[in-house]
Amino acid sequence: MSHIVTCENLVVTYRASNGPVRALDGVDLTISEGETLAIVGESGSGKSTLGMAMGRLLPAEAEREDGRMDVAGQPVFDIAANDLRELRRDLLGFVFQNPMVALDPTMRIGRQMQRAMGRRAGSEEIHALLERAELDDPARVAKSFPHQLSGGMAQRVVIAMASARTPRLLIADEPTASLDASIRDKVMGTLCRLRAESGASLVILSHDVHMIARHADRVAVMYGGRIVEQGPTGRVLDAPVHPYTRALLKAAAGHEKPGDWLTPIPGTPPLLSARCAACSFEPRCTVSEENCHTTRPEPREVEGREVLCLLAGTQTEPKEAAR
Amino acid sequence: MRILFYFLPKLAVAAITMLGVSALVFLSLRMIPGGYADVLLGPFVTPEAREAIAVRYGLDQPLLIQYLNWLGALFQGDLGVSMVTRAPVLDEFLRRAPVTLELALLALIVALAGGLPLGILAGIAPPDHRGGLLARLVGALGASVPDFVLGSLLIFVFSVWSLWLRVGGYVGPIEDPVGNLRVMLLPALTLSLFGIALVLRTTRDAVLRVMTEGHITTALARGERPIDIVRLHVLRNAAIPVVTVVTTYFGFLLGGAVVVEVLFSIPGIGFFIFSGLENRDYAIVQAGVLIAAAVFITINMLADLAYALIDPRVGSGRH
Ligand SMILES: Nc1ncnc2c1ncn2[C@@H]1O[C@H](COP(=O)(O)OP(=O)(O)OP(=O)(O)O)[C@@H](O)[C@H]1O
Ligand SMILES: [Mg+2]
User: Fold this and answer.
1) Which of A186, A195, A234, B185 has the most CB atoms around it within 10 Å of its CB?
2) Which residues, judged by CB distance below 6 Å to any ligand atom, belong to the binding site of ligand 1?
3) Residue B279, by phi and psi: left (phi above 0), alpha (psi -120 to 50) or beta?
4) CATH number assigned to the domain covering A3-322
């Protein structure tokens, strides 16, 4: 199986006014062609940074300090500006959290669609693509300005734009979080259907465990700028191994309504300024031991998934039911 | 339709504003100590002579009557008669307006030609770019050097080394286009330095703000070239604050740039109002301020119209 994304030990730091913030602290991740991967984690764990890094769309104050990110065989942080533009245009598609922000308020939808599809796209092609994104009156939508659409319609436009050139990798950062709960499933369905039609890979960055359970083939759990557990969706969600994954699922388990966000775990996630020399979850971990405080965990294969925990799979690990 | 509904209330507000300005001008002028009689007849004027002057020009009437008389005449297009030259004020203004208009247009062109490109450059260039540094220098200079300082400096330099440009000795553009330009360029330049800085800073700030907006990331994500991003997304979204300051600046220029016109002996409206004020020539000052206000309000309404054309959300009720 070939990989559309290969990310090795990626370290990204933001130069903020009150010191550096190490948002990615060595991420190792591969994404296969055609698979749907969900990346979950609390706010600030680095999901968006990782997603944007796939198109090198990080803001100017972000710096890749170490590691590499290969997308479709091209090292995005090391290629020329022209190649990067072509990569973004031809192979990548991004769906952002808030469509009202993602669309230019001063340009008609049709024109923005055309920019995404290429100069030769006529109004018939534009309408056809809008129709594929399940917008009922494409002619009217194309004539509208973004503020004249509902949030759901605008997000369908963004999804249509992202799929305009049949990308090989779609990256959706909280694609339904800004939408009304009643339409989240439908919009997510549209995104997944368009993905399936093109056979692209899809990365969903989200808090919504139930949505992930429904749509993702594989789940990666992020904490403190690293992926602490990744594996097939069923295995990770049904029998989590990392203490953080367990806490995350437990926090969400009480009130299981679709669209619910994860309630926070006691304590706060770390704000790293340099490489973390220990397990970054140790201060909040209920089962930690002496060496969790002194040893940086490296990825290990445990029960059919990759885990970053010194105790996972060992005798000392207290077996507790996740659900 | 959207634009009409957005625009009609603004017209009403403009009319009310004009009325307010007229009352304010009328009153404030009569608050200034010393009257026309003092200026005309000198400090040793007798009470009888003062009386005669007051009756002649209706200055003995109650203020409200004076104001209403003035307003009534205004509506018939009568701006009054200069107490000094006895000529109708309107004619005097119309004679001088083209001079001020030319000066204002020249200064505006220079301000836009300098401020817009530098502002855009400063907005999109990385912090250590040479163009960005130049922009910062010009912005700081323009905002800190007063026009009479720059004007005096230019007058000094160009009086010593004539260098083709001329100081004073105004000639009209119809009689002598080249000579006119030689006279007008220095005052226009003096006036425009502030404008360059104003346009530059506003443009840069607006561009910087737009560059952080989400739709720019979207455009980058679909592989747009930087030049297309600036052309298609940045300029239009950054335009509104720029339109605001450019129109305000132009209104300020049209109202008559008193200091620069006096400094360079340009016989425009600013010079005219200035001498009117010196002579307590009420009719001129009243009319001058009123015309300046009318020009300003008209220009601001044009700016409002421009907003609605630039941003489809303006006046749509959803912002
Ligand atoms: N432009 C920036 N400047 C400085 N720090 C930043 C910047 N963007 C993100 N960060 C920091 O980097 C870390 C990771 O942020 P990121 O947005 O990737 O997290 P996230 O998992 O997407 O969170 P959320 O769920 O809130 O979207 C956070 O600590 C955040 O404060
Ligand atoms: Mg995020």
Assistant:
1) A195
2) A 14, 16, 21, 23, 41, 43-49, 59, 61, 271
3) alpha
4) 3.40.50.300
